[in-house]
Amino acid sequence: MKDELKSLSWAILLSFAAIYSVNYFFGINKQSIVQEQIAETEKTAAQAQAAVIAEETSIQKLKDAKEVLSQDKRLNFKNDSISGSIRLKGARFDDLYLTKYNVSLDDNVSKVELLKPAQTANHYFADLGWLSLDKSLNLPTSASVWQSEQAALEDGKPVILTWNNDDGLKIVRKITLDKNYLFTIQDTVVNDSDREIELFPYALINRNIEGYVASRSVVHEGMSAVIDNTLKEFKFNDLDKNESETFDTKGGWLGFSDRYWFVSLVLGNKDKAQVTLKNNGDENYQIDYLGSRMIIPAHQSETYTYNLFAGAKEIKLLDAYTKKNGFSKFDLAVDFGWYYFLTKPFFYILDFLYGFLGNMGWAILLFAALLRLCMFPIANKSYTNMAKMKALQPKLTDIRNKYADNPQLIQKATLDLYKKEKVNPASGCLPMLIQIPIFFSLYKVLNISIEIRHAPFIGWIKDLSAPDPMTLSQMLHIYVPGFIDIGLWPIFMGFTMWMQQKLNPAPVNKDQAMMFALMPVFFTFMLGHFASGLVIYWTLSNILSIIQQKTIMKKNGVN
Q: At what angle do helices 340-357 and 315-324 cross, to 10 degrees?
């Protein structure tokens, strides 16, 4: 009997060991199941998004926007910054105008149109919704009609949209609009069924760029995203047809960025998501995200919050959203460039001066004067050295004549003279080296700042962000090739640059002297097509340099 019990005990023990071993080495991996489910959901999301595109954006015959807008019932919205409507079919954001900004200086009526419905040229819209692995679960699609309890959405007056699948699932969508460009969409999913429901939040922005003309500025235009606190930027031509880029992130934002305008979906900082940027072909681009899995028990509810920004890149406003709303690096929607540490402070200084003077052109001129004041000690030392250099020109000429046949002796005698007179020939380059990052930073500010768009100055300058419109072809009433067809301010700037160069000692080398003589001409035609505000800044900076340099030369007895 003992032997039988002993054998039974060993059998039970070995059975448990076998079961454990099988489960350990060959058993079901729960983590693998979760990953497979997520992968399947991502596939479902991609299919759903493809269906959205196929449904409305592949129609060959495009329709008029008014005709499309009249096809479905809509919920109007308006505040001091934007106006438009939300299509209740699909609860889609596809009609939005920026009421503070005109299309052009010549058109004071037409406002900038940012979002456009599908079936129109260059459509641009945002969809937000839910996905599930359960194919039997009826969820809202772009064809589902939502019910609204209010007639319109206004600042401080949210609206409630509802959708019911008549099978125990109800979605209550609360949409809030602030006084600027931010929509807050809060979805409460109510599960009145007797079973648990598993859902994934998703959202997308779809855009067609047929006929799109990028600005000539160096500002990024295309798809942008902050992924795990790092900025990612893709130009439209960075992705080939049907090519995509996928990233995993926790928080951040994603969207489309133009020179002055921006449409973005903002993720919750605690929300893990997968972000995909894709070229769907036919000049159709899409950027979307798939949020983390949400499990809603029977007879309970869960809430998820989206944020949609659609508006102008007003730097102070984006900074406010970063600080107050916790949007990760939202100010990087503005392309500050490599000199971020200079560009952003420069903008705030200009904005302060603009608030003080009431005109951006005068603000730029005062900014130039303040920069010259800050650089005065460095420039003063440099110009003093250059004045001494100019005083030495007769002696340098004598050295070149004396040792005309021996370049080595010319070089040695010249260096000895510099050492004796305590002159550093390279010190004159220092102000120019300092000016280079300042120049590029200010160039960026004038290109990226919506606050400078259409900002007037005196006379014929109506837009400081655009080139001088008073060109040679307009003044002379003849055809002038584009590159040399420049305005009056660039010509004036070139003249001041030439005057300043005349105050400097001439280079010893003839080839160098010729190059320096051509520099004012080169800069005149190059800057002639830059923002007029930048040319005005450079002109005043030259004038102040001339005054400072002339004063120092007079003090040192140099004519």
A: 110
* Residue 21 predicted with pLDDT over 50: no
- Residue 2 burial class via C-beta count within 10 angstroms: exposed 0-12, middle 13-18, buried 19 and up: exposed
Q: Domain spanning 33-335: which CATH class is it, in words?
A: mainly beta
Cβ–Cβ < 8 Å for 171, 140: yes
Which amino acid, one-letter code, is at 356? F
Is residue 492 within 8 A of residue 461, CB to CB? The reply is no
Distance CA 492, CA 389 (A): 27
CA–CA dist 319, 380 (Å, integer) = 38
DSSP per residue, 230-245:
EEEEEEGGGS-TT-EE
Specify the domain boundaries for CATH 2.70.98.90 within the chain.
33-335
State yes or no: pLDDT of 11 exceeds 50.
no
Residue 111 CB: number of other CB atoms within 10 A?
A: 16
> Of 130, 134, 124, 98, nearest to 113 (Cα)?
98
Q: Which of 548, 510, 556, 520 is nearest to 389 (CA)?
A: 556
> Strand pairing partners for 234?
223
Q: Model's pTM, two decimal places?
A: 0.83
Classified as helix, coil or strand, 205 is strand
497-532 per-position pLDDT tens digit: 999 888 776 666 677 778 878 888 888 988 888 889
| Structure confidence at residue 33 as a pLDDT band (50, 70, 90) | very low
pLDDT of 304 strictly over 80: yes
> Mean pLDDT across the stretch 474-490?
86
Helix (H/G/I), strand (E/B), else coil: 408: helix
Query: Which of 96, 128, 126, 91 is closest to 113 using CA atoms?
Result: 96
User: What is residue 479's three-state secondary structure?
Assistant: coil
Q: Do 308 and 93 form a contact (C-beta atoms < 8 A)? A: yes
Are 464 and 455 a contacting pair, CB within 8 Å? yes
Question: If you average pLDDT over residues 194-223, what whole number do you get?
Answer: 85
Hunting for tokens 């609206």 — which residue is that?
Answer: 159
* Contact yes or no for 534/500 (Cβ under 8 A): no
Strands (E), 132-243: 147-148, 152-154, 159-164, 169-177, 182-191, 197-208, 222-227, 230-235
